[in-house]
Design a protein that fits this description.
This protein is an alpha+beta fold. The chain has five helices and eight strands; from the N terminus they run βαββαβαβαββαβ. Helix 3 packs across helix 5. The protein binds coenzyme A (COA).
């Protein structure tokens, strides 16, 4: 895998059919439903590519809006929020890395890219946190980046914690744009 990765909005030229991730139907989702979800504005889909071969999808994630009940938020966080019954958050609905690219910090890179986008747009569309419904095997992946439990398989990272994470723990691989000249 190239040391430099670019994240793009899912487009027609991306080859979905060769993306391999049997876990949790995440490969099937990219092949069969991702484009529809984009068309119906159910989710925004972002793919990681090597700029030298941008049609090959190495990994992807999805973002969409979600509303949580204020009462579902841990008490110590409720105090910092407006007293409305619902809290606007961003759902990281899916995140997957092609089986051939695992263990090379691409998952981490995609997670940081998602956090970066959410932080960057939060002054335009307010959101309190990134929320993820983890698969059993992936829970610890999110915990290691500071996500904490909400309920069931659902974890969250408040935006203030996300900002701290981005400052204190930069991702191990660089974006194409960050490539030194
Ligand atoms: C979970 C997943 C996205 C991780 O991607 P990856 O590129 O293989 O992981 P990375 O190389 O970025 O891992 C970064 C760090 O997290 C650790 N890590 C990776 N997967 C982990 C897991 N499931 N549990 C705990 N730690 C994990 C790595 O060991 C690495 O630690 P290090 O910095 O000490 O070396 C990938 O395994 C995947 O696509 N799994 C199937 C789908 C899935 O479970 N998605 C998440 C739920 S939507």
């Amino acid at each position: 895998m190239s040391e430099f990765i670019r994240v793009e909005v899912l487009a027609g030229y991306h080859d979905r059919k060769n993306f391999e991730c049997p876990t949790g139907g995440l490969g099937d989702y990219l092949r069969e439903r991702a484009s529809q979800d984009v068309r119906h504005r159910a989710a925004a889909v972002f793919v990681a590519v090597n700029p030298a071969a941008p049609e090959r999808v190495l990994g992807y994630y999805t973002l969409s809006s979600l509303s949580l009940k204020l009462t579902d938020i841990p008490a110590q966080h409720q105090r910092k929020l407006a007293r409305y019954p619902d809290v606007g958050v961003t759902l990281l609905g899916r995140l997957a890395v092609d089986v051939s690219c695992r263990g090379q910090h691409l998952g981490e890179f995609l997670l940081f890219d998602a956090l970066y986008r959410v932080i960057a747009t939060s002054s335009t569309i307010a959101t309190v946190a990134l929320v993820v419904d983890t698969l059993v095997d992936s829970k610890d992946f999110y915990i290691r980046y500071g996500f904490t439990h909400l309920r069931d398989q659902r974890y969250w990272l408040p935006l203030d914690s996300a900002r701290d994470l981005m400052q204190n723990q930069p991702p191990s691989i660089l974006t194409h744009e960050e490539r030194p000249s």
